[in-house]
Design goal:
single chain; alpha+beta; 4 strands; 54% helix; binds glutathione
Length: 206
């Protein structure tokens, strides 16, 4: 299987991290976002959104990081990363949707203002937007922290793609100065995910 990816991308990391946990060797194809390779016609033919990641498995092309995670985990059902139990699968999907709709965009606002604007010369960070992103982030961290008050992992008793999805949204916690320490249950859970060998292996700085 081929994965079109960029190591600095959170969405690409979701796929790479899942593959690494599962011990699946992906043929990784670097898409240089700085050079605009994701907007070239040959790439747009695979992924019309012009974004990474894209998974190609034979004649099957799959975009959207969170469903790529489910697809990869389905290749190794015994891993439990996408659990066979129907309710557990819906729970996992619910948290992945929650991440895509709420958790990740709040962090994304802060990431855009603090990192991407500087990187691509898009002007000065907007303090009001940062404050708004952080306020939303704190609100959603409270939700996750409450959920984790009685759990080790987000769904069921073991690691699933829900954990990998949500933890990846926090991967830039240090440069963004995210207030993880204020949310003890999230902090402890995040510590468990970041202790995984696969997490270290897929760190952009690795
Ligand atoms: N919903 C998509 C989002 C993909 C996405 O936005 N990827 C970013 C990198 S994290 C990207 O390629 N951005 C380039 C662009 O949109 O121009 C997914 O989850 O795969």
């Amino acid at each position: 299987m081929k994965l079109y990816q960029n190591p600095g991308s959170t969405n690409a990391r979701r796929a790479r991290l899942t593959a690494a946990v599962l011990g699946i060797d992906l043929e990784e194809v670097l898409v240089d976002l700085g050079k605009g390779e994701h907007k070239r016609p040959e790439y747009l033919a695979l992924n019309p959104n012009g974004a990474v990641p894209t998974l190609v498995d034979g004649d099957f092309v799959l975009t959207e990081s969170r469903v790529i995670m489910q697809y990869l985990a389905s290749k190794r059902p015994e891993s439990g990363l996408f659990p066979p139990d129907e309710r557990a699968r819906f729970e996992v999907t619910r948290w992945q949707f929650w991440d895509a709709a709420h958790f990740s965009p709040a962090v994304g606002t802060v990431f855009f203002e603090k990192v991407l604007k500087r990187l691509f010369g898009l002007g000065e960070p907007d303090a009001a937007r940062i404050a708004e992103g952080l306020a939303n982030h704190r609100r959603f961290m409270g939700v996750l922290n409450g959920h984790l008050s009685t759990r080790t992992y987000v769904v069921g008793d073991g690691l699933t793609v829900a954990d990998l999805t949500l933890a990846t949204s926090l991967m830039y916690e240090k440069p963004l100065e995210l207030p993880i320490a204020e949310f003890a249950n999230v902090r402890d859970w995040f510590g468990r995910v970041t202790a995984l060998e696969a997490w270290v292996k897929t760190d952009p700085a690795h």
